[in-house]
Amino acid sequence: MTLLASESTISLGDEVRAVRLAHPLRPILYLVFALKLAVAGALLANVALAPPLGADGRYLLAD
Q1: Cα 35 from Cα 19, distance rounded (Å)
Q2: Rg of the chain (C-alpha set)
Q3: What percent of the chain has pLDDT over 90?
Q4: What is the tens place of the pLDDT at every residue in 10-40?
Q5: Which of 2, 18, 24, 61 has the most beta carbons within 10 angstroms of its beta carbon?
Q6: Is the dihedral of CA 28, 47, 62, 60 positive or negative?
Q7: Is 45 exposed, middle or buried (0-12, 13-18, 19+ CB in 10 A)?
Q8: Helix, strand, coil percentages in the chain from 3-state DSSP, rounded to 5
Q9: d(C-alpha 9, C-alpha 11), whole Å
Q10: What is each CA distance from 18 to 4, 10, 11, 38, 42, in whole angstroms?
Q11: Predicted confidence band of residue 62 (pLDDT cuts 50, 70, 90)
Q12: In whole angstroms, what is the distance from residue 13 CA to residue 10 CA?
């Protein structure tokens, strides 16, 4: 079994880095993650602002 020379691992690292940076769908992935966070934040805000209900309470405007 032979070990890889440090020169070959450096060149492989550069190639992997170049492929990783040049991926065409990376901006779309970031956009999807940002939208997911925005939707989760909006849902949590709605839950936080909802009026509290008792165990026997109902959603009625006027009793």
Answers
A1: 25
A2: 26
A3: 33
A4: 566 777 766 666 788 999 999 999 999 999 9
A5: 18
A6: positive
A7: exposed
A8: 65, 0, 35
A9: 5
A10: 21, 12, 11, 31, 37
A11: low
A12: 5
Residue 31 pLDDT: 97
**What residue has token string 């956009």?**
31
* Tokens read off for 41: 């934040």
Q: Which residue has the tokens 């993650």?
A: 33
Q: Which amino acid is it at 58?
A: R
Phi/psi at 58 (5° precision): -130, 160
What predicted TM-score, i.e. pTM, was given to this entire model?
Answer: 0.51
Report CA torsion sign: 50, 56, 58, 62: negative
